[in-house]
User: What shape does this take?
Amino acid sequence: MIIVITRPDFFEGEAEKIVQLLQSGRADLVHIRKPQASQSQVEQLLLSIPTALYQRLVLHDHHQLAIKYGLHGVHLNSRNPQPPAGWSGAVSISCHSLNELAECRKQPYAYMSLSPIFDSISKRGYYSTFTPDVIATAYKVGLIDERVMALGGITFDKITEVEKMGFGGAMILGDAWK
Assistant: This one.
């Protein structure tokens, strides 16, 4: 699975780029992550995307819009640690250590990300904390599997590599928007 995460800022042509990523097959899902945006701003972006693609969108904030528009999922974070009341779609979460991943695996999340697998492209000074041996061991003991997405420094040309590591797919931010 290939998941693209939006830049935190809005930019000209963003909705068209999201549509292109989804329709071209370069992304299976797009996570709309706009931590500083108002609900109205996120809703305007959604309204710029064809409704036929709503089942391939996940929101990091303003989760009630996921219910209103029938989106694929919501992503939990420190700002939104619980899905909204009445939510029945997919729920995902980010993990930044193997201990955190082990705890998250006890929950029925559709998928979890683990980061940073490689040095980040979009966040300066955000370096990988996992050696190849640590990843291999985590895979062998069942911590990494098809429900865990690699995040951090992922480019489209590293997707095969992370799948060989045992991840279910990759989450891409920086490489998708350059």
User: Anything to note?
Assistant: The CA atoms of residues 3 and 171 lie 5 Å apart. The chain has a mean pLDDT of 94. The radius of gyration is 16 Å. The longest strand covers residues 90-95.
